[in-house]
Amino acid sequence: EIIILGEKEKVMSCIQLLQSKCRYMEENFSSIQVEVRQTQHKYIERGGGIQDIFDRTDVWVEIPTDGSQTIKLFGLEDKLSQALSVLFEKANSIKTVDLECPAWLLKFVIGKNGDNIRSLSEKYPKTTINCQSE
């Protein structure tokens, strides 16, 4: 509900402007759904990512809370492609990869006192390496 208070002529002008804007939005508003791996959702959301996408494109992003991979975007048709690009840029800003390694080989990968992992971490400082045995 929108409540407008003021002088009669100004209120009527405001109503006409708002009605025109609403008609335009109804005619040009659309939504799309895209599949993004659940593990990548946090990279879209972090640091005000959803608000950032809205501020940059005027498109609202809805990320599911039920574990679904389907993300919905709502906005003007001509802005959806730009929002989709920003969304995928954020989603793919961090990559998570699971490498299968037999448990008996893990100690060689880690190295003596963790030297091999430490060396990789120093060589690639913006990465995190976790070794887990089952």
Compact summary:
With 134 residues, the protein is of the alpha+beta class. It has helices spanning 8-28, 41-45, 49-57, 77-91, 103-110, 115-123, and strands at 29-35, 60-62, 70-76.
What this model shows, in words?
By secondary structure, this protein is an alpha+beta fold. Helices cover 50% and strands 13% of the residues. It has helices spanning 8-28, 41-45, 49-57, 77-91, 103-110, 115-123; strands spanning 29-35, 60-62, 70-76. A three-stranded antiparallel β-sheet has the order 1-3-2. Helix 3 packs antiparallel against helix 4 (77-91).
Please specify the SSE layout and strand pairing:
Layout: H1 8-28, E1 29-35, H2 41-45, H3 49-57, E2 60-62, E3 70-76, H4 77-91, H5 103-110, H6 115-123
Specify the number of helices.
6
State the distance separating the first and last CA atoms: 56 Å
Order of helices and strands: HEHHEEHHH
How many strands, what sense, and barrel or not for the largest sheet?
3 strands, antiparallel
> What is the average per-residue confidence, as pLDDT, rounded to a whole number?
90
Q: How many whole angstroms does the radius of gyration measure? A: 24 Å
Unreliable parts: none
Q: How much helical structure, as a percent, in the residues?
A: 40-55%
- What is the molecular shape? elongated
Range of strand content: 5-15%
Helix/strand class: alpha+beta
Name the strands of the widest sheet in spatial order. 1-3-2
Tell me the number of strands.
Answer: 3
